[in-house]
Amino acid sequence: MSLSNGGGRSGEWRAAGQSQGPSQGSSQESSQEPSHSYPLLVRDHGLGTALKLLLETLPYALARWGVLLGFAAACAVFAFVAVGGAVWLGTHVASVFGYCWLLGTLLLGGWIWGAILRYTLHMIACGHVAVLTELITHGRIGNGTEGQFAYGRRIVMDRFGEVAVLFGLNALIRAVLRAFHNALDTLGDWLPAPGMKAIVGLLNTILSAATRYLDKVVLSYDLVRGGDDPRRNIQDGLVYYCQNAKPILTTSVWMVIVERILSILLCLLLLVPAGLVTVWLPEAVREYGAIVTVFIAALLAVTVRAAFIQPLFLICMMIRFHALIENQPINSTWVGYLDGLSDKFRQIGR
């Protein structure tokens, strides 16, 4: 049974009765035409192409970095207030009040800050994905006269319901992916080099990397496919991922390796500016110079990694996904398998 926008779902999806899903590259493809039709100008998912697109959309990366730096500074101030308030209450009132203040502010305030940060970054990322999708599929932004932020903001506001739905369904999407990944017997035969098979601990990292980027990849698919049923588009995107899991996860192997290398190099390079910042701090703080310098370098590395390195690999994943599903019909066997594997898949369509 297809999830095509062109027709309704007559009958129930066929649940898979076996513990393993259909084999990758199965010939049991649906005989129907692909449920989508859109141009695709960029098919090379190499780092060079991704870097070019990242530089072309650099304002979004800089905006994300600015938000992350702002929240990092706000969190430092918040932590100071939490600890300072706890010490003052413990000294002048009672120790129990100090502990309550510390736990309450860290737990409640941390949750609020985390939710605000995640939603803010989600909105920025959705605008970025909208712009990248246009460049990948049409080679230009809108009619060619619209700025990146103007176009991204217009798409996000015009399709705010879909963007909000994706944010709310993120947990369900990750649950479906975890269920699918847990059902895999092994990735050993998928790895590109024999020596890689020995690195067992890397497998979960690879799966986590694919899961991290896929919600935005699915958003890109929903934006370019259009229609009035984003939940169905999200389900189709997940099915397409499962149909092409082997090449996508093979790409994820190199993404994870290069990302880790770049992150380590970045942290080492940032030790120099972090040391300069430490010199300008109050003397009481400079007494812990080495610790403070490493902390500042790590904090800067985390923000730079999230603002520039991770979007680079998101672009790789987006291009890889769109190129793989081009002219590819939905495999109804995978629809039934996901339906039987996790009830979260059904919940996405409700």
Layout of secondary structure:
Elements: H1 47-56, H2 58-92, H3 95-137, H4 148-158, H5 160-182, H6 202-225, H7 230-243, H8 245-269, H9 271-279, H10 283-286, H11 289-325, H12 332-341, H13 343-348
Concise summary:
By secondary structure, this protein is an all-alpha fold. It is built from 13 helices and no strands.
Helix content range: over 70%
Distance between the termini: 17 Å
- How many helices does DSSP assign? 13
Shape: globular
Would you list the SSEs in sequence order as H and E? HHHHHHHHHHHHH
What attributes does this structure have?
single chain, 350 residues, mainly alpha
Q: Care to describe what's here?
A:
The protein has about 350 residues and is an all-alpha fold. It has one domain (about 45-350). The chain is built from 13 helices and no strands. Helix 5 (about 160-180) runs parallel beside helix 7 and helix 6 (about 200-225) packs across helix 8. The longest helix is centred in the first third of the chain and has 43 residues, at about 95-135.
